[in-house]
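During the reporting period the student researcher (J.K.) took over the structure-prediction task from the postdoctoral fellow and processed the backlog of single-chain submissions. One of the processed entries is reproduced below for the supervisory committee.
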Amino acid sequence: MPTLLRDQETLYFQNAAGSVFYHAAGYARLAWSAERVTPLETQTLYEHTLTLLRSAGAGKVLSEHAQRQPLPPSTQEWLSHDWVPRAVQQARFRYCAIIDGQNPLHRLSAQSIIADTSLGVLFKRFSSAEEAASWLLSLPA
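J.K. obtained the following structure tokens:
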């Protein structure tokens, strides 16, 4: 992500799974690590993201999957059937820009979450952070 965009961010939370940043333009950015992590570490990162979305009144997420390991099926199910519905209800989560990783298994695990989620969240995939951020900025708050 260009320095200009990162200059407008504040680190909100970090663990072995990755980092959550708040961008001044009104979205959360998840920067995933390349580490293999436990489902609990992944869930903790998402729970802190939900807390940030609620407190900031933001309903947009930019998730950088370039390094993230594929999610196990149990975590995919938790995201689709627990976290996303709560994020929609509690934080008006509506838009998610995904920067795809190179690992085909990762893309499949991300696709299963997108396909399982029928709650009005618009997911869109991108190859660069610039495109993803531009799309989020073009959407209503």
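The committee noted the following: The chain has a mean pLDDT of 88.
J.K. will present the remaining backlog at the next meeting.
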